[in-house]
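note to self — DONT lose this again. spent like an hour looking for the file last time. sequence + predicted structure for the chain T wanted, 228 res
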Amino acid sequence: MISKFIFNNQYLFDELPEYDKNLLTGAMKTKNYRKNEPIFTDGTKPNGVYYLNEGKIKKYKVDNDGREQIIYIYSSGEFFGYSAILSNESYGDTTSTLENSVISFISKDNFMDILSQSSVLSRLLLKSLSHEFSVMANLIAVLSHRTVRERAALSLLILHDKYTSNDAPDDEVFISLSRVDLANMVGTARETLARIINDFKQEKLIRSEGRKIQIIDFKRLIHIANFY
């Protein structure tokens, strides 16, 4: 059940009535972001909500030694940054682009005004927050008790889902993530990750073209991930 480790909120926009969608799109200001450009940082006060039109965004924490732990990766069609607005607290993590991205911004005042008018949006946000909490709890429980090899296998399966296009789900999927970011997602050193990726290639579980990785044996990779 890989789904219990995968969170997305693409349904937020899709399931809204047309009137509510128009309220949101009317309040959006869209901007192009370059690869590795920060969006917001841990500890800062939120001033709005973001919607990812195109690209990939990483959500991560930085420990006292400056090491990143990637918590989540957003794909196109997802909102982010709203939990801090709803809780009226500072951001609890940092986000930045993994590739050139197009992101829309809705100011805090506009978002709260729309939320007060839309009971559907309120319900969907509550559903999204509950789902996100459940996924994070599952990830913490599993990743804290798994070997690096198991964590690497699970991370690749999660990434496969994130890099699968909703418009063309049957297309070949290539995970395009730097080895540094992949290591930060797995929670290990880059050198250790490199050895595991090489092992997976030798075992014919994956293949790679430069930084791109394609899973070719899902059954065995799921077995290695050991998340049952």
